[in-house]
Amino acid sequence: MDTDMPFDGLPLTYQFSCPASELAVRDLLIELRSALSAARLESDLSSSVEIAVAEGLNNIVEHACAGVVDGLIRVEMRVNAAHVFVQMLDSGEALPDWILPEGRAADLSVARGALPEGGFGWNMIRNLADRLDYSRINGTNLLKMWFVMEHPEL
């Protein structure tokens, strides 16, 4: 995908922050849903953003900030009618080797009792976002997600 996408030029329209806990993330997601609704995005785009951000935040809480006493998460979102740019920042542990997980689809052809309980998040994030980028700067994880409405001309 072209690296000169128009997202970074969008005005910052929403900022959210919360402690790195499941309950605080739930409240942040309620705020995010309200902001997406106020932006009057096409419903598929809005749903994609909400699900991908929820999965990203879940990973931050469960992995990056697991065991971190004062973990904080900040989410910034830029929106227009056809594009959404989201960046999530946290002070937790870095991703292994500073590389985004591949997000392979789980094998669902196993017996019901052998189905995996987790491991679906990165696959969903990769399928929902049009572009992803991860970096770590001065002890802070920065995950960027870009989303584009499929048919902005309609």
Under CATH at level 1, the class stands as: Alpha Beta
Average pLDDT:
85
Helical percent range?
A: 25-40%
How would the global form be characterised?
A: globular
Radius of gyration: 16 Å
| Strand element count | 5
- How many separate structural domains? 1
Annotated CATH architecture: 2-Layer Sandwich
Terminal CA distance reads 22 Å
Number of helices: 3
In what order do the strands lie side by side in the largest sheet? 1-2-3-5-4
Structural class: alpha+beta
CATH superfamily: Histidine kinase-like ATPase, C-terminal domain
The CATH topology is what? Heat Shock Protein 90
Concise structural overview:
With 154 residues, the protein is of the alpha+beta class.
What's the layout of helices and strands?
Blueprint: E1 12-19, H1 22-38, H2 43-64, E2 72-79, E3 83-90, H3 121-128, E4 131-137, E5 140-148
Antiparallel strand pairs: 1-2, 2-3, 3-5, 4-5
Helix pairs in contact: 1-2, 2-3
Could you describe the 3D structure shown?
With 154 residues, the chain is α+β, with helices and mostly antiparallel strands. The protein has one domain: Histidine kinase-like ATPase, C-terminal domain (Heat Shock Protein 90), CATH 3.30.565.10. Helix content is 31%, strand content 26%. The chain is built from three helices and five strands. The protein is globular. The two termini are 22 Å apart.
